[in-house]
Amino acid sequence: xxxxxxxxxxxxxxxxxxxxxxxxxxxxxxxxxxxxxxxxxxxxxxxxxxxxxxxxxxxxxxxxxxxxxxxxxxxxxxxxxxxxxxxxxxxxxxxxxxxxxxxxxxxxxxxxxxxxxxxxxxxxxxxxxxxxxxxxxxxxxxxxxxxxxxxxxxxxxxxxxxxxxxxxxxxxxxxxxxxxxxxxxxxxxxxxxxxxxxxxxxxxxxxxxxxxxxxxxxxxxxxxxxxxxxxxxxxxxxxxxxxxxxxxxxxxxxxxxxxxxxxxxxxxxxxxxxxxxxxxxxxxxxxxxxxxxxxxxxxxxxxxxxxxxxxxxxxxxxxxxxxxxxxxxxxxxxxxxxxxxxxxxxxxxxxxxxxxxxxxxxxxxxxxxxxxxxxxxxxxxxxxxxxxxxxxxxxxxxxxxxxxxxxxxxxxxxxxxxxxxxxxxxxxxxxxxxxxxxxxxxxxxxxxxxxxxxxxxxxxxxxxxxxxxxxxxxxxxxxxxxxxxxxxxxxxxxxxxxxxxxxxxxxxxxxxxxxxxxxxxxxxxxxxxxxxxxxxxxxxxxxxxxxxxxxxxxxxxxxxxxxxxxxxxxxxxxxxxxxxxxxxxxxxxxxxxxxxxxxxxxxxxxxxxxxxxxxxxxxxxxxxxxxxxxxxxxxxxxxxxxxxxxxxxxxxxxxxxxxxxxxxxxxxxxxxxxxxxxxxxxxxxxxxxxxxxxxxxxxxx
Length: 701
What we know:
7% of the residues lie in helices and 51% in strands. It has 701 residues and is mostly beta strands. It folds into 5 domains: 2-171, Coagulation Factor XIII, Chain A, domain 1 (Distorted Sandwich), CATH 2.70.50; 174-306, Immunoglobulin-like; 313-432, Immunoglobulin-like (Sandwich), CATH 2.60.40; 444-579, Immunoglobulin-like; 583-700, Immunoglobulin-like, CATH 2.60.40. Strands 27, 28, 29, 30, 31, 32, 33, 34, 35 and 36 form a 10-stranded mixed beta sheet that branches. Strands 9, 10, 11, 12, 13, 14, 15, 16 and 17 form a 9-stranded antiparallel beta sheet that branches. The longest helix is centred in the N-terminal third of the chain and has 18 residues, at 2-19. Residues 1-20 form the signal peptide. Keywords: Signal.
C-alpha cells in the first residue's frame, strides 16, 4: 500500500509540472491554422499560423531564462504516421536556418511576451512555420498524418505535443533533373567570343521566387563534361543562378572565376570576368534551355527521371553489438519504396554531429544483413524495392576512421537518402543516440614468452616465439594495416624492448616494419589473424645476460600511413630465459702492433668472424708500416663455435684481399692470451708477403 501511494504522488507531481497548477497546460494554443496545401514564395508545402498563451509560474520563468535573462521559446513542428512512426522534426533543420536565408521556416524563435497587466497572461501571437513538401519523408501522393506542435527553451526544457491535429498531405512527385551543358560561349567587353569548356563553381539551383534568398538546392561547375544534377519537386519555382560562391556556400560575386577553353586550357586572356553572372527561371518541361546574357550563353540539354517514392520506416543504432567476436555498433535502416523503371540509384548516407557541430559521414562499416554494399565514403547502396539493411561498424574501424570519437562521444545521428550521384537529398531521418567506444580488448597476446637455445642458418643464438590472436574480421577489413607493437614496459625499463628490437624475424607471415610511432620498440605487420612472431638473435649480438624475467608491453594496433593507430588489445608481458648460460663465453678480442714490410698498395681493415659469419668489420685504415693502436671488440660466443680474426688489404672493402687469418675454437680459449704472430706462424699460408708481424689478444669471462 505504501508503494502504491508513492506512485500516485509521483504521477501527481509529473502531471503538475506538465500541465501547470490546477490542471492548466503550460501552453494553451488558442488559435491555429494549418494549411496542408500552401505555397510560399513559389514553393509548395505546409503553412502553419498559431497563437498561444503560457501558464508558467514566476519561479518557472526564472529557471528557464537564457544567458541574456530572457525567455525564448523555439517552436517547431513534428509529424508522424497514424502508427506514431515519426517522419519529420523541425529541429533537424535548425542549423540550415542559420546557414541560409531560406524560404523554409522549420523553427520559430519567439521571445515570451509579457504584457504590463499580468492578468492578461503571457502570450505570443501570429507564430509562423512553413515546411516545404520536398523536405518531408513521405512518398508521392496522399498521406493521412498527425501534425504536432512542440516547444523548447535554450536550456533544453522540452514541451512536446502542445497542439496536435490530423491532416492529409498531398505530396507532389519528385524528379531528378540533369542539366548537361552542350555549348558554353563567353563574350568579352570588346565583343569577341570564346568557346569554353567550363566555368568553375558558378551554377546554382535556388528554390523559391525571392531574389534575396541564398538557399541552395545544388551547386557545381558549368562543364561540358559533367552534368549538373539536382532534385526537383513538381510545381515548385526553381531559379538557376550563375554567380561565384564563398566557402560557406553563400552566393557572392567578389571572386574571379577560372575559365577553361574548349581544349581544357585555362583562359587567362578573357576579359570581363565580373559580367559572368545571371539568373534564369527553370522550366523543367523543356528538352533544352539556354542561359543567356551579354557575356555568356550556355546551351543545356534537360534530362528528367522520376525519383522513386521512398520512406525511412526505421533508423536505429545499437552501440553495444558484436559480430564474429568483434565489438562494435550496428546501424539498421528500413525503408519503403515504390519501384520506378529507369529511376536513378539511391544511397543512404549515415552521419553524426561532432564536438564542433560539424557533420561527419560515418565510415568503416560492413553490411551484415540485407542486400547492399558500402563505398569508401560510407554511402550504403539501396535497392528500388522495400528493404532492411544492417551495417556493423567494428569499434576498431570507428577509432581508425573517426580518431576523435572517443574524446567526444557523438549523440546526434542522421541518415539521408540521396541520389547516388550526390546531387540531391530525397529524404532524411535523425535520432539521438550515444555511441561510446570503450577500450578494445579483441586481440590476445601471450603474457609471457620464453627465450630458448636454437640454431638458425648454422648460427647459434636464442629464439623467442610470441603467439597472438585476433578475430578474422580484422584481417578481412584491415589486412595491410595490422601491427603488433612491442614497447617498453615503462619509461624506466627498456631492456625487453631493446632486446626485441635487435632480433630478426624468421617466419614469412610476419614483417618487421619501420614504425614512426614506435621508435624505441619493435613493430611487426601481420597478415594472418592468428599466428606467432618468431624472432632470432645470435649470441654474438647479445649485449647482456638476464637471469630474471625481462618485462615489455605488447599491443595490437591498426595504423594507416604512419599516423597514430587504434589500439585493439594488449597486455604486460615478459621474456623468461630458458638457455644454457654455462656454454656462453664473454670474449674480448683485439688486434694491435701491425707491422708491414711496405705500405703503398692500399689500406687495411680487420674483422671478426664466427662459424662463417662476420660479427664485426672495421672501416678501411691507413696502411702505415706500423700501426700501434689497439682495436678491440667484446661479445658473447657459444663454446661450440669457432672464432677468427682476419686482416685484409685493398683500395676498398669490396676488393680487399685476405692477408692473414687467426682461428680457434671458443672452448679452447684460455682466460687470456697475447699472441705475437709472424708470417711463418700463420695458418694456411694466407700471408701475401707484406705482413711482418701482428699482435692478437683475447680474454674470456
